[in-house]
Amino acid sequence: MLYQNPRGIGCDKCHGIYGNGKIIAVYKENGKKKYLKSPKINNLPKEEFFKSFTLSHKIMPKYFLTYQEINTLYLYLQKIKNGKKGK
Length: 87
Ligand code: HEC
Description:
The protein is of the alpha+beta class. The protein is built from three helices and two strands; from the N terminus they run H-E-E-H-H.
């Protein structure tokens, strides 16, 4: 499955298995608790989803996926979003 095993680290590790986004790490800065969070990615318009693969990110690794593969990921997230329970 491409979402869990693209050519690189799995998307689910950071965005959660349903792409709802989640807290990746908790750290402290000047004695304050900070959270490193990933955005929800299963509610984006298609152009936004595609755009994020052509830009470089601060945290998210850069992937080299084909149009076909990104499209597959997009459709996959749309599908599991509707099948999710509670979360
Ligand atoms: C190392 C953690 C990590 C992994 C792995 C990862 N992401 Fe991300 N992703 C992020 C973070 C954090 C952001 C927010 C932008 C930033 O600061 O990098 C983001 C942003 C995005 C966005 C843009 C969201 C928006 O609101 O504009 C999309 C779409 C996305 N990721 C999809 C994916 C997909 C699909 C995969 C797998 C191929 C993936 N990500 C793998 C952490 C990750």
